[in-house]
Structures are given as C-alpha cells and as structure tokens.
Amino acid sequence: MSELFLDEETYDYLWLTDRSNTKAQKILRRYHGCNDRPRCQCLTDERNRELVIKARGPRFYLARKAETSHHHAEWCLLYEPPETGGPSAKQKPAVQYRKISS
Ligand SMILES: [Zn+2]
C-alpha cells in the first residue's frame, strides 16, 4: 500500500487521491502551493519521490514530478518503469483499438 508523508502525517495514497473524499480534498487544498509536499514512503532512500498538488477546477489532485516515477518501489502505485526513450516505446498507443473483422 502506498503511503504519503505530508507535514508529519501519513496518508494512504488512495484515500488522499479519492476526489469524492471531501476531507482529503480539504487537505490537498490546504497544502496546494505550499512548500510542504507529499512524499511517497515506499522506499527510504534519498531519491525524490515528492508529489505536487495541482488544482483542476474545484478539485485537487496529485501529480508526480517529472522523472520520478521510477524512483518508487515496483509494488508502489506510483511506480512506472523508466522511459526507455527508444522509438518503440513511443509507438505504443495510449488507447488500443480493436480491429473489427468482417
Ligand atoms: Zn512510491
């Protein structure tokens, strides 16, 4: 389970990012634009696992900083393998269309 550390409190990642959770939204609003940033607790090394609180309309959400997704443990919800940068990685479409055979 991914846990975030923010201002000496630990929050469950899914709880904090549930946009229908008014309590969590209130916390994100309070720290939005603040120097206190949520930090993922999946590993204890020194790599940057800070998240940025962003606002979209009236809602607040968490975004990873660029180039930090592979700093997380592989079991972490925020983990993504490092970008290989090769052309094959870019060719993969975000949405997969199924071929309709007639
Ligand atoms: Zn993590």
Can you describe what's shown?
There is one protein chain. With 102 residues, the protein is α+β, with helices and mostly antiparallel strands. It has one domain. The protein has 3 helices and 5 strands; from the N terminus they run ββααβββα. Strand 4 and strand 5 form a beta hairpin. The longest helix is centred in the first third of the chain and has 10 residues, at 22-31. The chain is globular, with a radius of gyration of 17 Å. The model has no long low-confidence stretch (mean pLDDT 88). Bound molecules: zinc ion (ZN). Zinc ion binds at residues 2, 40, 42, 49, 72-73, 76, 78.
Produce the secondary structure layout.
Elements: E1 3-6, E2 9-12, H1 13-16, H2 22-31, E3 39-40, E4 51-56, E5 59-64, H3 87-91
Antiparallel strand pairs: 1-2, 1-3, 4-5
This protein binds zinc ion.
Region (Disordered): 82-102
